Amino acid sequence: MKFDTPLIKGKLIKRYKRFLADITLDDGSEITAHCANTGAMTGCAPGGANVWLSVSDNPKRKYPHSWQLVEVSHGTLVCINTGLTNKVAFEGLQQGVISELTGFDECQSEVPYGDEKSRIDFLLTYDQQKAYVEVKHVTLSTEEGEGSFPDAVTTRGQKHLRELIQQVREGNRAVLLFIIMRTDVTLVKPADAIDPEYGRLLREAVRQGVEVLAYGTDISQNEIKLTHSVPIVLSDQ
């Protein structure tokens, strides 16, 4: 997934009110940018960090700048824009990068489903079989090389796991797909210390037959590409 326009560089002053961030651009000017991330962004908003922004020419936007990337340590880039995760996943599906999910006949997005009135990120059709694919954006790293999800208690994520379990019981494939939107992660674990109920449901989902996958990305100031499978560690607490 290539960025639509070249990104511009700045330094983060602070993130606040969830959706806003103050940033100093390289020319010394200070601007307020939109932050497309509702999560805690733990470890992803250090003051003074290098950041990269896109700029919209839409005159109706109050904040034309959108925060896209942050350098959390030397050479480690993180994409904080959760709105890009499904785009990266869709491109990976179309290009056959996700080996476990190739050969489908049709790919639909945002399809309503489930007793709890959810929308599945991708519904794949294989002849007579359906695969329900829920995508999650991973940016939290709790140990060197270890990615964790979620970065805050997520009742919505818990609901999605219950919905996936129900799809397995109804005879469909159900897949939870972690997309790692940072460049220093080599495995993924549930963040039990943050949301123990999510960790419990995730392990139960695996026991019930939900497939759990994790894929890493190559991130630059030009594009984000899904590249490789990453191990998932689900050992009990």
Could you walk me through the main structural features you see in this protein, from its secondary elements to its overall organization?
With 237 residues, the protein is α+β, with helices and mostly antiparallel strands. The protein has two domains: 72 residues, Beta Barrel (OB fold (Dihydrolipoamide Acetyltransferase, E2P)); 148 residues, Trna Endonuclease, Chain: A, domain 1, CATH 3.40.1350.60. The strands form three sheets. Strands 7-8-9-12-14-15 form a six-stranded mixed sheet. A five-stranded mixed barrel has the order 1-2-3-5-4. It has a three-stranded mixed sheet with strand order 10-11-13. α2 packs parallel to α3. The mean pLDDT is 96.
Topology, please?
Elements: E1 8-16, E2 20-25, E3 30-35, E4 50-55, E5 65-73, E6 76-79, H1 85-94, E7 106-113, E8 118-126, E9 129-138, E10 140-143, E11 146-149, H2 155-169, E12 173-180, E13 187-190, H3 196-208, E14 211-219, E15 224-229
Parallel strand pairs: 3-5, 9-12, 11-13, 12-14
Antiparallel strand pairs: 1-2, 1-4, 2-3, 4-5, 5-6, 7-8, 8-9, 10-11, 14-15
Helix pairs in contact: 2-3
CATH third-tier fold name of the largest domain? Trna Endonuclease, Chain: A, domain 1
* Largest sheet geometry: 6 strands, mixed
Overall pLDDT metric: 96
Number of β-strand runs: 15
Can you tell me the number of structural domains?
2
Second-tier CATH architecture of the largest domain:
3-Layer(aba) Sandwich
